[in-house]
């Protein structure tokens, strides 16, 4: 017997490659449990559930009115498929959804212009390319010819190769080098823009913005290699047009559901500080079978997964699996970015060369079985994920969304509106008080026009009317003021005035006044835009540039 790790014993008669992969699968499964449990313990998942519920417009009172939400978990994590016994109003005046939609649309317009790109690749003011070829123009070199004093109009400078050139010539050559650097940067920008256009990155970015506004965090993945097919028609000398299908490996970007991303618990506020990261997806058995025979996939491991059938997440993640979708009869497939040993990569069919080193790799795992392993296409080993927090939270990569900021105003509006509806129901008609000894002439006890009531002898001949009414006061003004207070609080706690939703309100009706008010209203959005650039645009485009330098022309 040979021991691999702390808790796994491998039979010597087993294929050594499979034994190594099994030990690797157990090790990765342990890391995955840590990542899944840490995210659940952090409490962010409970907040995501609440934010999603308020965005959709339901809570525990009206949950049973939604067919697709009757079996979803409650705010405390428990589940119920039975409609709650609520006797009062269950209306849910949703102010969270229009707020989130308006802010998402406004941020999308700011960051993703339809007629221009939202990034630029520019050369630095002093390009590094060939800079050592030029001496410092401000300081004469020690090798300067003695007959060329510093005061002369165009002093001679000695180049590192020993040649003497005038300062004017050196400056002209330096400017030419800067122009060449700018030209190359422009070509790189055009190539990256072409890649992003092909994968429709703007559409994916809009989804990321929606996630960030609603849940507080948006995730974009890229660049990742994809096989793209394109059609090309060519007309031959005989005049016949021929269709040619071209397949190319190109980089692409995709939005990732925050529910499916599990970073290293020790990553802090940046996922790139962690040692690994897990991404989850779901595939049917048919899709898993289709992986057999594809380059890089290990058929023996896939067969094991098919024999075992779908396995769900650990119990600690049961809530997220239930909330996201029904995972019945679906396999959970995991994509792991982590550094692993060369022998483990070689067991999966990768040729690493140096067997004493660890390499950044991408592993695909189903049911705790590694079914594929490959080297990270980026030599830097960087994770291809970027997370934008709508509002930063200390110590964790997940942010606070607009839906969470609107939680208290939303509850105020919902509570006051339901009380208003209950009061309207009670006050919609008077309460009828009938004195003892009074009976209806027709024997039917109901209120109707021109009805005759007969007093019996024991009624005592009261002077007051035998049938009176009591009107319940309609507290519409008082309750409406509470609703308006909640609406005003929504503007205050988010910093997003109704002006962003196209409502002028009490804004001054002048061009100058409206311009100032609009600029002030957009201050919070500009902060989000800058955060988007620093969290997503800059690192994302930098990876595309690295891809271009590594694989591009």
Q: Which labels suit this protein?
A:
single chain, about 550 residues, alpha+beta, 5-stranded antiparallel sheet, 3-stranded antiparallel sheet, 16 strands
Give your account of this protein's structure:
With about 550 residues, the protein is of the alpha+beta class. It is about 40% helix and about 20% strand. The chain has 14 helices and 16 strands. It has helices spanning about 15-40, 45-55, 95-110, 165-200, 200-215, 285-290, 300-310, 320-325, 340-345, 400-405, 405-425, 475-495, 510-520, 525-550; strands spanning about 1-5, 10, 155-160, 165, 215-235, 240-255, 260-265, 275-285, 330-340, 360-365, 370-375, 385-390, 430-435, 440, 455, 465-470. The strands form six sheets. Strands 7-8-9-10-11 form a five-stranded antiparallel beta sheet. A hairpin with a 2-residue loop joins strand 10 (about 360-365) and strand 11 (about 370-375). The chain starts with a strand and ends with a helix.
Number of helices: 14
* Strands side by side in the biggest sheet: 7-8-9-10-11
How far do the termini sit from each other?
A: 51 Å
Structure classification: alpha+beta
Mean pLDDT: 80
Main pleated-sheet profile? 5 strands, antiparallel
Low-confidence stretches: 1-13, 138-151, 314-325
Total DSSP E strands: 16
Q: What's the order of the H and E elements?
A: EEHHHEEHHEEEEHHHEHEEEHHEEEEHHH
Shape: elongated
Fraction of residues in β-strands: 15-25%
The radius of gyration over CA amounts to 35 Å
């Amino acid at each position: 017997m040979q021991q691999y790790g702390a808790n796994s014993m491998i039979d010597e008669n087993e294929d050594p490659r499979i034994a190594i992969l099994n030990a690797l699968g157990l090790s990765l499964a342990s890391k995955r449990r840590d990542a899944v449990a840490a995210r659940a313990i952090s409490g962010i998942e409970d907040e995501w559930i609440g934010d999603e519920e308020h965005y959709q417009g339901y809570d525990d009172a009206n949950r049973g009115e939604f067919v697709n939400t009757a079996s979803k978990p409650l705010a405390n994590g428990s589940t119920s498929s039975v409609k709650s016994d609520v006797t009062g109003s269950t209306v849910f005046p949703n102010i969270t959804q229009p707020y989130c939609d308006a802010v998402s649309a406004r941020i999308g317009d700011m960051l993703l212009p339809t007629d221009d790109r939202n990034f630029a690749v520019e050369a630095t003011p002093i390009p590094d390319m060939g800079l050592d070829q030029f001496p410092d123009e401000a300081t004469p070199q020690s090798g300067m010819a003695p007959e060329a004093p510093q005061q002369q109009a165009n002093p001679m400078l000695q180049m590192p190769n020993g040649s003497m050139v005038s300062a004017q010539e050196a400056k002209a050559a330096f400017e030419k080098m800067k122009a060449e650097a700018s030209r190359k940067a422009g070509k790189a920008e055009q190539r990256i823009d072409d890649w992003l256009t092909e994968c429709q990155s703007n559409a994916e970015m809009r989804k990321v913005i929606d996630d960030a506004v609603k849940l507080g965090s948006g995730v974009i993945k890229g660049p990742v290699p994809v096989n793209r097919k394109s059609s090309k028609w060519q007309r031959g000398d005989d005049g016949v047009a021929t269709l040619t299908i071209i397949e190319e490996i190109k980089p692409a970007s995709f939005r990732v559901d925050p529910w499916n991303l599990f970073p290293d618990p020790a990553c802090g506020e940046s996922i790139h500080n962690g040692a690994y990261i897990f991404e989850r997806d779901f595939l049917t058995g048919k899709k898993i079978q289709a992986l057999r025979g594809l380059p890089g996939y290990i058929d023996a491991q896939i067969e094991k997964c098919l024999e075992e059938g779908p396995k769900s997440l650990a119990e600690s993640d049961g809530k997220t699996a239930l909330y996201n979708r029904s995972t019945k009869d679906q396999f959970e497939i995991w994509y792991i970015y982590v550094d692993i040993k060369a022998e483990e990569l070689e067991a999966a069919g990768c040729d690493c060369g140096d067997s004493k080193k660890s390499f950044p790799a991408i592993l695909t795992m189903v049911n705790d079985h590694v079914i594929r392993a490959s080297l990270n296409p980026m030599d830097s080993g960087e994770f291809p994920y970027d997370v934008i927090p709508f509002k930063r939270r200390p110590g964790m990569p997940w942010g606070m969304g607009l839906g969470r900021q609107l939680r208290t105003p939303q509850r105020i509006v919902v509570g006051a509106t339901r009380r208003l509806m209950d009061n309207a129901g009670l006050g919609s008609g008077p309460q009828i008080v009938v004195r003892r000894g009074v009976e209806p002439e027709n024997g039917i006890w109901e209120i109707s026009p021109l009805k005759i009531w007969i007093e019996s002898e024991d009624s005592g001949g009261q002077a007051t009317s035998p049938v009176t009414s009591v009107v319940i006061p309609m507290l519409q003004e008082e309750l409406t003021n509470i609703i308006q207070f909640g609406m005003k609080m929504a503007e205050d706690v988010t910093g997003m005035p109704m002006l962003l939703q196209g409502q002028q309100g009490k804004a001054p009706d002048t061009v100058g006044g409206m311009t100032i008010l609009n600029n002030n209203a957009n201050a919070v959005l500009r902060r989000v835009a800058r955060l988007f650039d620093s969290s997503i645009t800059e690192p994302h485009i930098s990876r595309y540039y690295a891809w271009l330098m590594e694989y591009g022309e």
